[in-house]
Specification:
6 strands, SH3 type barrels
């Protein structure tokens, strides 16, 4: 099975919230071009929490996020 990357921009995050919370791994791209990879949890209206692979927690405000990228299984 192939994978496809799906990009969710800041204005569309609330629409795709359920998909993002089910993903094992997401890449959170900040407006400063810093990328944090991990699992999203505990969403609030203006902030997300993410646990990275080092088990560190990151609290990121929604206005700091440029986009969220996650992998999705392709049908081919």
């Amino acid at each position: 099975m192939g994978k496809r990357q799906t990009r969710v921009f800041r204005q569309d995050i609330q629409k795709h919230l359920q998909d993002l919370l089910q993903c094992q791994t997401v890449q959170l791209v900040l407006r400063t071009k810093v990328v944090i990879q991990g699992k999203l949890f505990n969403p609030e209206p203006d902030q997300f929490e993410l646990i990275d692979y080092g088990r560190n927690k990151h609290a990121v405000a929604l206005h700091q996020i440029e986009e969220i990228i996650y992998d999705k299984e392709a049908a081919f």
